[in-house]
Amino acid sequence: MNKTKTGYIIPHTHWDREWRYPIWENRLYLVKLMDELIETLENNPDYKTFLLDGQVIPILDYVQVRPENRDKLVKLIKDGRIDVGPWYTLPDLYPISGESIVRNLLKGRREAEKLGNCLDIGYESFGWGQPSQLPQIYKEFGIDTVIVSKNVDKKRAPHCEFKWTGKDGTSVYATRLGEDARANFFMNAYIHIMNGVAYKSDDYNFDMGNYGQVYHQADSENYIQDYFKIEDTEKIHPEVIKEAVTKAWNSMKDTLIPDYRAMMDGTDSTTAQPQLMNLIQAINEQFDDIEFKSSTLGEYVKILKEKLSLDELIEIHGEMRDGPTTSLSGNALMTRPHIKTLNKKVQNSMFNQAEPLSVANMMAGGKYDESFLQLALDYMLLSHAHDSINGVTQDKTVDDVLYRLNQALEISNAISNKSCQDLIRHIDLSQYNREDILLVVFNPYAKPRNEMVKAYIDTPQVQNIWEFDIVDCDGNVCELQHISRTEVTSPVVRLQTRPFPYYSDRHCVVFNTGEIPAGGYKVYRLCNKVEFSRKTEFWAKTRTTDGKEIATSSTCMQNEFIKVEVNPNGTISILDKENGNCFDNLNYFESTGDVGDYWMYYPPYHNQTYNSKGCNASIFLMENGNLAATIGVKLTMELPKYAYRPDNYVRGKSERSEQTEHLTITTYYTLKKDTKNVEVKVEIDNNCKDHRMSVLFDTGIRARSVDAQGHFTVDNRDVTPLKDDRGHYYNELLTQPLQNFVSIADDHKGFGIVTDCLGEYSVSPDCEHKDGGDGTLSMTLFRAVKNIICTEWRSAGVFPNQEGGQLQQKLVYNYAICPMNSSWENSDLSEMADCFNIPLKPVQTCVPAMLVEKSEGILPPKHSFYQVTGKLSVSCIKKAEDSNSIIVRLFNPYPTEQSGSIIFGCDVQNVCMTNLNEEEMAASSLNIIDNSVELNIKPNKIVTLKLDLA
Fold first, then answer.
1. Cis status of the peptide bond prior to 324, with omega within 30 of 0
2. 8 Å CB contact between 947 and 908
3. pLDDT the model gives residue 772
4. DSSP codes of every residue in 34-52
5. pLDDT attached to residue 855
6. Is the four-CA dihedral 815, 820, 825, 829 of positive or negative sign?
7. What are the two backbone dihedrals, phi and then psi, of residue 365, each rounded to the nearest 5 degrees?
8. What is the pLDDT of residue 325?
9. Residue 515's Cα: distance from chain center in Å?
10. DSSP character for 631?
11. Count of CB atoms within 10 A of residue 907's CB?
């Protein structure tokens, strides 16, 4: 019989760099995989290709310990026998920024091309949800077909193949594959045929003594680790081929090309399958109508695109983050939150400070520290692998991830400081005297700033300075608030000699900077006002006031725009003076039981949820002046010490414990002059287990949707997740991701939170009720859960001696509460979030002992290197990957077209547009007028500019 159908068997692995096992143990298993793969491919010329999981890092990790095999690998990759890329590592996309996604693909493509070839398919079978802008990102890397998983609901995508359209309107081919997605052939056919027992059957269990030799550590430290089967007993069982392969074939029953089906042959940590060609031959002997062939993902995608027109496919819009949670791994956003907090700190330091400051130094004739910044980027990207960034691992791996992120942070901070040092050395300070104490405040943000900045300024003890003014380079006296003074001795370091001791008085002050240029700096001078006697024991200098302190009592603060009252239970109430809107019951805490795992929130059946509204708080005024005030709140919640997790969710207790602990929460509320938000710092000493902790805000806003900053956009989501035909939804998916802000609004008012650390929110579904509700916005602080790793759905890696997932530690959070007149797009919430994440950097300096002669290259006391006008947002300002050009990436997160310009503070000879891969686009040169480029950017579009300095 003529075979009219084709099954494309695509062998692959899903290789987690560090997950069930720490990195070096896992590296040994990787070496075994790669050694076997090289041998298998060399001995089987008909073995078409092995798909290495859409990433490059396994090859680089292997070559690190097997450098002698690099040439063999390069040949296999060039010949198309191993597919690598386009990703560098396989990140979870939601905890990281859009810019981090771009950098991962930039590095992945370049590393793959160095090895010989890069896969031009968006292999996304690993992602824990796909953001709404991913089609645009992929398309700008030349990728127009995406393999997706985790998760698109069949109600939205009834067929395997569909047209996926992103937030900006960019469309790509997409396939969710079929049942079991990336493992449809492996789980349904390969395991059954090679082991003689179906994977999903009750018979699939290990029979000691009959299934091969095993290895299991039995010492008191390691007995909890997995067993390993160290004898290969696989063989082809021809009697089950027909049944098993038919099941795999039918798993793609929803395809629109039923005669051509992808048979994905691999899953977590699977290897090369040396017997695969013999297996395919045996399969073909039993099927008269289907030809099964060793194939590639590219071959299957080519057929898919030939047979299906993109515009005829069902169109899916926006992000894909559908339930159930078990298919999405959707509740890992705030497990091990200290990893995510540190990662956000690294991203801010690298993308928003180190790189743009290094570009500024480059514009001033200095050096862009590319090698250091690339090293920092590598440390960071290696931490973004989905299991790594979420800490869904053994504790040792979390330590490794934190180590890498801390290296990235240190390098980024060091480069920021070096760039500031170099720039200061080029500033013309000839208008100042040698004894002057100077400050330079750097603003790496691409828009002008006017803020209240806290600075620590050291004055020589010999000058006995008690009070001083701060005067900017234009002669304006800045508003100033003294916080504290203390004697210090500091080392002044010069590598050519031993450190000099500097005896000084350290003044902590808050001052109003006035306008600081965008992407630049401004110089300030201290003017001595009052001196003091250091020998005074009594009758110290007393303080004066203008009577305009921010705090009017120990429980009330107000400025021109808002009034903040601290309530007896530690919550705050805010009055928006501009429109009279009031917000009560803001910033209370909630603890609810959680006996789930890293990936899924699961409350115990007999749950108890506690909140802090009934607590009595200790309230204290800490700092108060005409520019800023801080009120502290300390409260204690008595909570269950732990919870009982029933085995298989049905055996044993399912409740929170009767034994309790006192959990202490300290909150600091800060209000500054001329600001429309309340800054909040929360410190939690978590000594309870098995619970989810959140901070809540009763906004009183009735809304059916929420706006949350996403990747190069703002995602508008329904309060409740996708509903089925009965109107039901998955409770666990009420929580949703955000980048740096979330907001809720109605026709009368709005409410927002900006943050540099939080990554998950929810809004109470009572907003949808006809009688309304409290409009409660909840921000998840953490999920403290047991260390259970889902090795396989019937068996798990359980590590009772590893309690890192329970977060028995101090956790710190920063965010700001922002009352608004209306929705985010009609307010400055987006810019407020940017400023919250990109702090001004004050630096103390003095006039050089040997003044540099003034020349054309000397910088003025106030300068802007770059500025972006309008509502356009900046993603990065950095050196190009493959040249000495400068890359500026902008995007428009608004629902309407936005106009703006980018203005450079130095001579620019040409500017062109590139794609995200930094390849120049056809006819993309832009007009430059007075070193300025005008731009019109459509809604949710990303624009990348490449410029060359004159």
1. yes
2. yes
3. 52
4. HHHHHHHHHH-TT---EE-
5. 45
6. negative
7. 95, 5
8. 85
9. 31
10. E
11. 10
Averaged pLDDT for residues 777-805: 92
CB crowding 94-110: b at 16 or more within 10 Å, else e: bbbbbbbbbbbbbbbbb
Helices in 124-237 by DSSP H: which ranges? 134-139, 184-185, 191-195
pLDDT in tens, 404-462: 999 999 999 999 999 999 999 999 999 999 999 999 999 999 999 999 999 999 999 99
Q: How confident is the model at residue 856 (pLDDT cuts 50, 70, 90)?
A: very low
Q: Hey, which residues does 442 pair with through a beta bridge? A: 521, 841
Distance CA 687, CA 677 (A): 31
CA distance 349 to 411: 9
End-to-end CA distance of the chain: 71
Residue type at position 517: P
What pairs with residue 948 in β-bridges?
910
Region at 129 (left for phi over 0; alpha for psi -120 to 50; beta for the rest): left
Distance CA 194, CA 262 (A): 20
Report the alpha-carbon distance of residue 828 to residue 782 in Å, rounded. Answer: 28
Q: Which residue has the tokens 């309407």?
A: 896
The 10s digit of each residue's pLDDT in 823-844 is 999 999 999 999 999 999 999 9
Q: Give residues with Cβ within 8 angstroms of 98, minimum separation 6.
A: 131, 133, 137, 710, 711, 712, 739, 875, 891
**Preceding peptide of 151 cis, ω within 30°:** yes
**Tokens describing residue 121:** 């398919």
**Close Cβ partners of 815 (under 8 Å, ≥ 6 residues apart):** 679, 680, 753, 754, 755, 756, 757, 758, 779
Helix 370-382 to helix 395-425 angle (10° resolution) is 160
User: Mind spelling out the 3-state secondary structure of 201-214?
Assistant: CCCCCCCCCCCCCE
Give the number of other CB atoms < 10 A from CB of residue 31. Answer: 16
Give residue 2's pLDDT band: very low, low, confident or very high (50, 70, 90).
Answer: confident
List the one residue out of 60, 43, 62, 47 whose CA is nearest residue 11.
Answer: 47
CA atoms of 99 and 862, how far apart (whole Å): 30
pLDDT digits (tens, 9 = 90+) for 316-334: 999 999 988 888 888 999 9
Instruction: Count Cβ neighbours within 10 Å for each residue of 438-472 and write b for 16 or more, e otherwise.
Output: bbbbbbbbbbebebbbbbebebeeeeebbbbebeb
Which amino acid is residue 701, in one-letter code?
I
Omega of the bond prior to 91 within 30 degrees of 0, cis?
Answer: no
CB 609 within 8 A of CB 592: yes
pLDDT, residue 659, reads: 98
Instruction: Give the global pTM.
Output: 0.97
**pLDDT for position 767:** 56
pLDDT digits (tens, 9 = 90+) for 722-737: 888 898 999 999 999 9
For residue 413 the two structure tokens come to: 């901070």
Give the 3-state secondary structure percentages of the chain, helix then strand then coil, rounded to 5: 25, 35, 40
Q: Is 176 helix (H, G, I), strand (E, B) or coil?
A: coil
Q: Is 940 left (phi over 0), alpha (psi -120 to 50) or beta?
A: left
CA dist list (Å): 69 to 34, 75, 775: 10, 10, 60
Rounded CA separation 603/692 (Å): 9
Cα dihedral across residues 331, 335, 341, 347: positive or negative: negative
Supply the DSSP symbol for 240: G
C-alpha to C-alpha distances, 855 to 159, 230, 364, 427, nearest whole angstrom: 68, 73, 12, 11
**How far is 562 from 557, CA to CA, in rounded Å?**
8
Structure-model confidence comparison of residues 796 and 490, the more confident one: 490
Picking from 153, 204, 159, 451, the residue whose alpha carbon sits closest to that of residue 322 is: 153
> What per-residue confidence (pLDDT) applies to 541?
80
Q: What are phi and psi of 772, to 5 degrees?
A: 75, -170
